[in-house]
């Protein structure tokens, strides 16, 4: 009776058609075989290799302390695999109906649109569970053989359809959103709610473990721990591993929540996400019922011309947009990025090659990493200070030479908006300069050449140096009508700003010096940096006002 009631809630035609398709797909055997092999390889080979004893990922609470940890990993992989399979099937289902142009046939039948959409979600979930049926049965048998409690196995069996339902609902919702049949803004509240949940869990873990009073390097681990509480693997694995849950999360959260209570809470979260995805899919199908032709062509906004949806409209500031498009199409920009990457790489690899013979010792490796970090920091600051004035000291003089500055001034844009657009255009291109240094700084961090605070301080210093140096060149280009004079003053003021005691070079050396005594000695003079920062801020404000005034009232 209960089964008949449940089947009566589904659309009969969709259910029968999907069941026939599933018989053909499963009888072919290729997809189920590949999926089962992938689940077994991930659950019984890859995850034990990474998380097991002697694995690559070390944890304060090893999984191998629990007798049934391998079976639990396989079951957790099955639960996640059911969600992935349901998501892929939901996407394939709706795309197949679109490709075969069978939606009009659907609409001619006496279907309830919301029921038809929900049925596709339910049948996709059934397909996802069918793909992992064999690994799930093997995992249940292995769990029972390792004396896992029967109610823990039931938790796994209950989480599997919920995770599959989430996959099917999100797959159907993604189809309608991608074809503009459902508003993208409907996803924002869910994303915001998940972000707030992760943020709250992270702050709770930081508070309980007193993370604000400990090393900065431990914060990423706590962030990963908070994210893993929302991802499916950790809550699902905790269903059969109470000891691991207590050691890993219960102490960190400071809440008296047992592992089965955590699994039930996660089941409620999965049910809420699945219901939301099914609601978005039903809303999208209702819009399709009202306008069947909306699926054949991507709807345009009012007043939007054909082809405009494939064209980048740019930023709100048109000067910024024009500079980005002009600079990225030029050959000089490509050459600039190429030679800047070589210079940044040389600043890192030259000291590394000089100490290559000592890299067998971990202490010598850390010392070499500190030297690489120091020279890479100094090279990056010097390169930014050298390139930024050259890139911006002729932007306004070129407008004068081409006769387009009068037209630019005649637009409704104010001088400060023109200045901001020019500055952002140059900074956007200059930001490509620091991108090759990201993996190099990552290697320095990995080999204990620098900690996280040093890396963040260096990047903040490079960004400030880049913006101020680019602004100095832009201001001189606005003040002086001749390009040669503007470039001379731009480089002169930038050299004073960078090389003066307390400036960027001073701060870079204080942050990245390989010797602790040298860093401490430079940090003792941080009062000079504060005074120099105040003076530079005052001079930048004066240059800003003078440049805007010259741009608006000077004769060209």
Structure description:
About 2% of the residues have low confidence. Helix 4 packs antiparallel against helix 7 and helix 16 runs antiparallel to helix 20. This protein has 25 helices and no strands.
Question: How do you describe this structure in short?
Answer:
This protein is mainly alpha-helical and 556 residues long. It has helices at 2-8, 12-28, 30-51, 69-100, 103-108, 113-131, 133-145, 150-178, 188-208, 219-230, 233-237, 242-253, 259-290, 318-329, 331-354, 362-392, 395-402, 405-410, 415-434, 437-446, 452-479, 483-499, 504-512, 516-523, 526-553. The chain is globular and about 80 Å long.
Provide the descriptors you would attach to this structure in a database record.
556 residues; mainly alpha
Backbone CA Rg: 31 Å
Order of helices and strands: HHHHHHHHHHHHHHHHHHHHHHHHH
Distance from N terminus to C terminus (CA atoms, Å) equals 88 Å
C-alpha geometry: globular
Query: What can be said about the biggest beta sheet?
Result: none
Hey, roughly how much beta strand do the residues contain? under 5%
Please report the total strand number as a whole number: 0
Number of helices: 25
**Which parts are unreliable, with pLDDT below 50 for 5 consecutive residues or more?**
298-310
Structural class: mainly alpha
Mean pLDDT: 76
The percentage helix is: over 70%
Q: How is the topology of this model organized?
A:
Layout: H1 2-8, H2 12-28, H3 30-51, H4 69-100, H5 103-108, H6 113-131, H7 133-145, H8 150-178, H9 188-208, H10 219-230, H11 233-237, H12 242-253, H13 259-290, H14 318-329, H15 331-354, H16 362-392, H17 395-402, H18 405-410, H19 415-434, H20 437-446, H21 452-479, H22 483-499, H23 504-512, H24 516-523, H25 526-553
Helix pairs in contact: 2-6, 3-4, 4-6, 4-7, 4-8, 6-8, 6-13, 8-13, 9-10, 14-19, 15-16, 15-19, 16-19, 16-20, 16-21, 16-22, 16-23, 19-21, 21-22, 21-23, 21-25, 23-24
């Amino acid at each position: 009776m209960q089964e008949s009631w449940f089947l009566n809630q589904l659309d009969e035609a969709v259910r029968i058609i999907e069941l026939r398709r599933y018989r053909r797909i499963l009888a072919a055997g290729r997809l189920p075989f590949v999926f089962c092999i992938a689940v077994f390889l991930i659950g019984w080979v890859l995850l034990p290799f990474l998380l097991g004893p002697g694995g690559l990922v070390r944890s304060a609470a090893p999984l191998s302390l629990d007798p049934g940890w391998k079976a639990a990993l396989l079951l957790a992989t099955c639960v996640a695999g059911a969600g992935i399979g349901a998501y892929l099937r939901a996407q394939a289902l709706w795309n197949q109906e679109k490709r075969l142009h069978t939606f009009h046939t659907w609409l001619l039948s006496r279907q309830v649109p919301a029921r038809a959409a929900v049925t596709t979600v339910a049948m996709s979930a059934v397909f996802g569970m069918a793909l992992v049926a064999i690994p799930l049965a093997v995992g249940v048998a292995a769990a029972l053989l390792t004396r896992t409690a029967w109610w823990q196995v039931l938790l796994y069996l209950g989480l599997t359809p919920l995770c599959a339902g989430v996959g099917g609902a999100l797959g159907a919702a993604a189809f309608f959103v991608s074809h503009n049949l459902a508003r993208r803004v409907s996803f924002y509240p869910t994303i915001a709610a998940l972000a707030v949940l992760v943020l709250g869990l992270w702050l709770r873990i930081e508070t309980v473990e007193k993370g604000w009073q400990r090393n900065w390097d431990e914060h990423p681990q706590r962030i990963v721990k908070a994210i893993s509480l929302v991802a499916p693997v950790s809550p699902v694995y905790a269903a059969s591993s109470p000891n691991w849950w207590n050691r890993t999360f219960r102490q960190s959260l400071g809440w008296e929540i047992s592992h089965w209570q955590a699994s039930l809470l996660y089941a409620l979260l999965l049910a809420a996400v699945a219901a939301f995805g099914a609601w978005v899919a039903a809303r999208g199908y209702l819009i399709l019922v009202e306008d069947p032709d909306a699926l054949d062509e991507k709807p345009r906004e009012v007043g939007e011309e054909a082809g405009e949806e494939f064209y980048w409209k740019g930023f709100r500031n048109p000067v910024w947009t024009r500079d980005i498009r002009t600079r990225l199409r030029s050959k000089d920009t490509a050459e600039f990025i190429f030679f800047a990457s070589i210079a940044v790489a040389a600043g890192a690899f030259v000291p590394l090659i000089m100490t290559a013979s000592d890299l067998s010792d971990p202490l010598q490796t850390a010392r070499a990493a500190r030297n690489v970090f120091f020279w890479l920091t100094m090279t990056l600051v010097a390169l930014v200070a050298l390139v930024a004035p050259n890139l911006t000291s002729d932007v306004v003089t070129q407008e004068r030479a081409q006769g387009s500055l009068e037209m630019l001034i005649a637009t409704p844009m104010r001088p400060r908006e023109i200045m901001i657009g020019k500055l952002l255009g140059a900074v956007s291109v200059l930001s490509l300069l620091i991108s090759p240094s990201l993996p190099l700084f990552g290697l320095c961090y990995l080999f204990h050449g620098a900690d996280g605070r040093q890396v963040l301080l260096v990047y903040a210093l490079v960004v400030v140096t880049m913006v101020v140096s680019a602004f100095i060149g832009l201001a001189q280009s606005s003040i002086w009508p001749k390009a040669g004079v503007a470039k001379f003053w731009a480089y002169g003021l930038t050299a004073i700003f960078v090389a003066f005691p307390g400036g960027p070079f001073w701060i870079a050396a204080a942050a990245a010096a390989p010797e602790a005594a040298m860093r401490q000695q430079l940090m003792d003079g941080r009062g000079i940096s504060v005074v120099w920062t105040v003076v530079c801020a005052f001079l930048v404000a004066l240059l800003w006002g003078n440049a805007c005034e010259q741009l608006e009232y000077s004769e060209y």
